[in-house]
Amino acid sequence: QPVLTQSSSASASLGSSVRLTCTLSSGHRSYIIAWHQQQPGKAPRSLMKLEYSGKYNKGSGVPDRFSGSSSGADRYLTISNLHSEDEADYYCETWDRNTHVFGGGTKLTVL
Amino acid sequence: EVQLVESGGGLVQPGGSLRLSCAASGFTFSSYWMSWVRQAPGKGLEWVANINEDGSEKQYVDSVKGRFPISRDNAKNSVYLQLNSLRAEDTAVYYCARDGNGIPVIDYWGQGTLVTVSS
């Protein structure tokens, strides 16, 4: 079963960029993941699917400011030109043998 | 537009039962696996269970195996989660979610329904 590791918190200034990291456990570095955003008091929203190659597919309505990339076991979510509404929890998720696994989530604070 | 609408949450005593429902619309329901994911107060997301397109295959997280059977009715475009033998630690918002096709990570979420287990 894969394990997804995320930093518990991150912060960046309004208008700047931030890169969040999700690291796949040993033996699972090629796995596809998804990034999800959860704004305070709201349901999660799917942002994108991200492959080992760095190819990503965003959900409908996800702004161009959101992009994905990969390096080995690491999967990244980059948010450019940070808006106040980007302050949220961000979760990565993967799938293995018909079950799902979530990372612990990163709380992003926009300063 | 894909929509997932949960219902059935509420306050229940330890050892009690509840049935959660999720009504789906905006896509061909019978072509997708469906999942339930929960989130305890102040905690992260935890996948609970999923079910395949025709209901013949089901998977569960270990902590709910034997207590939370998942089912679906494709004629009603609905998926269900029966919560039995509830414990305080089952208190959470329960989300219905769609597993994507091809790459089956979750691609749509419902708004959630709160289950509180307390005496």
Describe it for me?
The complex is a heterodimer of chains A (111) and B (119). Chain A has 111 residues and is mainly beta. Chain A has strands spanning 4-6, 9-12, 18-24, 33-38, 45-50, 56-58, 66-71, 74-79, 88-96, 99-102, 106-110. Chain B is mainly β and 119 residues long. Chain B has no helices and eleven strands. In chain B, the strands form two sheets. In chain B, strands 2, 4, 5, 6, 9, 10 and 11 form a seven-stranded mixed beta sheet that branches. Chain B has a four-stranded antiparallel beta sheet with strand order 1-3-8-7, with no helix packed on it. At the A-B interface, strand 4, strand 5, strand 9 and strand 10 of A face strand 5 and strand 10 of B.
**SS summary, helix count of chain A:** 0
Give the fraction of residues assigned to helices of chain A: under 10%
Average pLDDT for all residues of chain A: 96
Number of strands of chain A: 11
Rg of chain B, nearest Å: 13 Å
* First-to-last CA distance of chain A: 36 Å
List keywords for this structure.
heterodimer, A: 111 residues, mainly beta, seven-stranded mixed β-sheet, four-stranded antiparallel β-sheet, 11 strands, 53% strand, B: 119 residues
Summarize the structure.
Chain A has 111 residues and is mainly β.
Topology:
The complex is a heterodimer of chains A (111) and B (119).
Chain A: E1 4-6, E2 9-12, E3 18-24, E4 33-38, E5 45-50, E6 56-58, E7 66-71, E8 74-79, E9 88-96, E10 99-102, E11 106-110
Parallel strand pairs in A: 2-11
Antiparallel strand pairs in A: 1-3, 3-8, 4-5, 4-9, 5-6, 7-8, 9-10, 9-11
Chain B: E1 3-7, E2 10-12, E3 18-25, E4 34-39, E5 45-51, E6 58-60, E7 70-73, E8 78-83, E9 92-99, E10 106-109, E11 113-117
Parallel strand pairs in B: 2-11
Antiparallel strand pairs in B: 1-3, 3-8, 4-5, 4-9, 5-6, 7-8, 9-10, 9-11
